[in-house]
Design goal:
Blueprint: H1 2-13, H2 20-30, H3 33-37, H4 41-44, H5 52-63, H6 67-77, E1 81-82, E2 103-107, H7 111-114, E3 120-124, H8 131-146, E4 150-153, H9 159-169, E5 174-177, H10 191-200, E6 201-205, H11 217-228, E7 231-234, H12 242-252, E8 256-259, H13 270-277, E9 281-282, H14 287-296, H15 300-305, H16 307-310, H17 319-325, E10 333-334, H18 335-342, H19 346-358, E11 362-365, E12 369-372
Parallel strand pairs: 3-4, 3-7, 4-5, 5-6, 7-8, 8-9
Antiparallel strand pairs: 1-2, 2-6, 10-12, 11-12
Helix pairs in contact: 1-6, 8-9, 9-10, 11-12, 17-19
């Protein structure tokens, strides 16, 4: 089933008008994307978001594609990719509402990162940093690397470049999430850095090989940077910086956001000051405190082994409530992720969560996120 589902995750990703959110809805509605592919037009029309125009595109393009043959041909130019059907697919990405249907990669894979057992922290910021921003980006990147963190960024000029380079300078590991295919370097000035990342980390993208730069791709890839990471550090960012998009995604996904403070009249710091006013954590000169906070973020293996998730004695629950409760952890989870893990209808999950909340077993957080109550 895993290999067959992989084929259909790829097939659905090729249908125009079907983005990551709609693919998720298909998977939740039909149970598998294999079943969704074989569904009738009337059955597809029952899925939220499938209007007349979308259905027309699906029916036409589906009739022109042979998923197994397409998968075989696609692998010739794109030999390395994961789908949510693969056990190696990064688990933290499965928590977000719009995980990439296909995640291409190139470089050195470390499964501990994919499984959530090694902490990933994103560092993002302006393409035109000040000397102050560069100095602190290098210092923080090296401190993270020396303390066992993997640094995630986007290979852009400026802060991204400095974070990747400083991490690898001290032998650390870094991931670069691109807005191009994994074989296309942008900007060209980072070609040497890109080659080094392939030997000391991983390059990732939701776009297939040979995809050129496109201005719409970069804001979208920022959700992947935030989704992969336990926390996002914004070093310097003007008000309209793409780094703020990454920070907003991080907030939506329940990730921690920290910012490097700057002077109120410094242009590169205006976005950071805005994030501070919205409750982001502040990066102070004593980096030990930051490292302590980042180290305190629970990892997936710690969550699964925690007393609150394994040893709690629960009251007798109905099968439906128990099925939902079994998916809950002490970490906040999105509603869509809970639906997927419970393999139940969204309406039943919503009702179950309400009952569990009234019983004091689950608490609802902002952004339609839920977590198991600690006792």
């Amino acid at each position: 089933m895993g290999q067959e589902e992989r084929v259909y995750w790829l097939a659905w990703s090729q249908i125009s008008g079907i983005g990551p959110v709609l693919v998720q809805r298909l998977q939740q509605h039909f149970g598998t994307l294999t079943a969704a592919w074989k569904a009738t037009t009337a059955e597809l029309a029952e899925v939220e978001g499938f209007g007349y125009q979308t259905l027309e595109k699906v029916v036409k393009q589906r009739s022109q594609m042979h998923p197994e043959k397409f998968h075989a041909l696609h692998q010739q130019e794109n030999p390395y990719f994961w789908t949510p059907a693969d056990a190696e697919y990064p688990r933290l990405l499965l928590e977000i509402p719009s995980p990439p249907a296909v995640l291409y990669y190139q470089g050195e894979v470390e499964l501990q990162e994919n499984l959530g057992h090694k902490p990933l922290v994103a560092i993002v910021g302006t393409r035109q940093p000040s000397e102050y921003g560069i100095r602190w980006t290098r210092q923080i990147s090296m401190a993270l690397a020396k303390n066992g963190f993997t640094v995630v960024s986007g290979l852009a000029a400026g802060i991204d470049t400095e974070s990747h380079a400083a991490t690898m300078k001290v032998g650390g590991r870094t991931l670069a999430v691109l807005g191009t295919g994994v074989d296309v370097v942008y900007p060209q000035s980072n070609r040497g850095l890109y080659q080094q990342i392939l030997t000391q980390g991983l390059v990732l993208s939701e776009y297939p090989a040979k995809t050129p730069p496109d201005r719409t791709h970069f804001p979208r890839r920022n959700r992947i940077i935030a989704g992969l990471s336990r926390a996002v550090l914004v070093m310097e960012a003007p008000i309209k910086s793409g780094a703020l998009i990454t920070a907003n995604y991080a907030n939506d996904f329940g990730r921690d956001v920290y910012v490097l403070p700057g002077r109120v009249d410094d242009y590169p710091s205006q976005g950071c000051l805005k994030l501070l006013s919205q409750g982001a954590g502040v990066i102070l000169k004593e980096l030990d405190e930051l490292l302590k906070m980042l180290g305190a973020i629970p990892q997936i293996d710690e969550i699964e082994a925690s007393p609150s998730s394994q040893q709690l004695t629960l009251p007798k629950l109905s099968p439906e409530l128990q099925q939902v409760m079994d998916t809950m952890t002490s970490e906040s989870l999105s509603f869509d992720f809970i639906v997927q893990q419970a393999a139940m209808d969204a309406g039943l999950v919503s009702s179950a969560l309400l009952q569990l909340e009234l019983m004091g077993l689950v608490t609802q957080l902002p952004g339609m996120r839920y977590q198991r109550c600690s006792f």
